[in-house]
Amino acid sequence: MKDEKGILFILSGPSGVGKGTVRKELFEQATDLKYSISMTTRNKRPGETDGVDYFYKSREEFENLIEKKQLLEYAQYVNNYYGTPRAYVEETLAAGHDVFLEIEVQGALQVKDNFPEGVFIFLFPPSLEELKNRIVNRGTESSELVINRLKEARKEIEMMGAYDYVVVNDQVEHAVAKVQSIIQSEHLKRERIEKQYKKLLEDEMK
């Protein structure tokens, strides 16, 4: 039975938890998932393609989309906007594809407000000690920044209640397998099957 509509999966969690690594590993395996392409006002870098790496927009175009509530979430970093376009996500879902979004906690909470039917997965560090080691081992932050990031991570972990699932990222391959199980079980949910079945019956009656 063909799914009539895809599902939006949101992978989120504190900084340093390894969201990007899990997402890369997930997409390196055979998957029908479509990655949610972000929109930005920053300039295109050499080798980047519009509609593949990002959707590139002018500041005016981006602010117009904010005004029209056409973004599932957005944020501003270093004078540039970044966000998730609603139209791209909805069109991809309508075509029957699952969409995968990997995002910071604040962005995920915005998506939850704007698209509550999404499936929200919280990637959890094995321990705060481990999270601290990961942030420190990046070697890109000063000790003051590491402390700030950890404080932020504590706050973000307290927001776990807004999510549907929690996956502990102790080993990347284990975390990926759990995410794949979540995707599979969401497709087997009674309500989804019921909806498709009713539609099937209606089509038969026509």
Automatic annotation (TrEMBL):
UniProt entry tagged with the keyword Cytoplasm: yes
EC number: 2.7.4.8
Enzymatic class: transferase
Keywords in alphabetical order: ATP-binding, Cytoplasm, Kinase, Nucleotide-binding, Transferase
Subcellular location: Cytoplasm
Residue positions binding ATP: G13, P14, S15, G16, V17, G18, K19, G20
GO MF: ATP binding; GMP kinase activity
SMART domains in alphabetical order: GuKc (SM00072)
Annotated ranges, domain Guanylate kinase-like: 6-184
Keyword ATP-binding: yes
InterPro entries referenced in this protein's UniProt entry, alphabetically: GK/Ca_channel_bsu, Guanylate_kin-like_dom, Guanylate_kinase, Guanylate_kinase_CS, P-loop_NTPase
Reaction it catalyzes: GMP + ATP = GDP + ADP
Single GO cellular component term: cytosol
Pfam families for the chain: Guanylate_kin
Family of this protein: Belongs to the guanylate kinase family.
Stored NCBIfam families: guanyl_kin (TIGR03263)
Functional description taken from the UniProt entry: Essential for recycling GMP and indirectly, cGMP.
Listed HAMAP family: Guanylate_kinase
Name of the protein in its database record: Guanylate kinase
Organism whose genome encodes this protein: Virgibacillus profundi
